[in-house]
Amino acid sequence: MKKIVSMLMSMSVLFGCASHQDFESRSGSSQEITSIPQIDWHEVMVPSSFSMHFSKQSQLLENSDISSPVAGFSFEVTEPRVTIEISGIVRELKVFAPNLALYDQDFNLLRKYTSEHFDYDRDDFVKGNVLFGDVELNLPLNITRVYGVIYTTDNDLSNTTELIHPAKAFAIAKRNDPPAIDDPIAKHVNVGEVSVVIKRDSIFTGLLEKPTKSASAPEIPQEYSEPGIIADSVISDVQPETKTFYYQAIETAVAENNIPKALGLLDEAKALGIEGVQEVFVKAINKK
């Protein structure tokens, strides 16, 4: 069994995502465009993880379907089954409400997903303050390339998202009654950050099931037991860089008043057997 686990862990490295990339949605050719092919495309791999940053310098697409700042990514289809995760990041009570349109190699529309597909889950303390949704694709064999366009709409810009107050989230996580205070409201804007993760199905899809984790947390190899058997401790040695990551991530989350994210990271670190994280969390709270 240990040999199988070792092989699966090695294969997870081969199928894992590359380092996270940041792309500025800026006009390399023309800022104001009228057609999808004119978008400045960012070529990415599958799998991959990257962020699109929208600003006043972003390309502006104006046509009958889309009237918005846009950011585009493109990838070659090497296998038909692909999952795309989209997260609109809330910062300073502002968020870019994402919509996603997918096109084939000839720029024919494949599918379109409105902002309703990417919503806020006030009960998900791990993801934190994001508008999240995922898209599962099973592409026909004649699709050789996919172009993805992220944009927003006038209707989105007229709406807001009600977030859970950090104090309420903290109380709920501790199984206490939440305080009677107003929840903060995030305004929808046409600038901000949208995070994208593209995953592919490996030969192990369906065999292994991985726990939910924060999008900012590092990938940790895990050992899996035979069906029906609960594994003992799955992490034997915690690497120093992993310990440092969680210490710093928890302190940063608390400093940014993102208590749900800090609690999610705290739970992850405890599950991995990292010592001292409770003290780090408490000290960060007291410092605030």
UniProtKB/TrEMBL annotation:
GO cellular component, one term: periplasmic space
Matching Pfam families: MalM (PF07148)
Single GO biological process annotation from the record: carbohydrate transport
InterPro entries: MalM
Taxonomy, superkingdom: Bacteria
Name of this chain's protein: Maltose-binding protein
Gene source species: Vibrio agarilyticus
Lineage: Bacteria, Pseudomonadati, Pseudomonadota, Gammaproteobacteria, Vibrionales
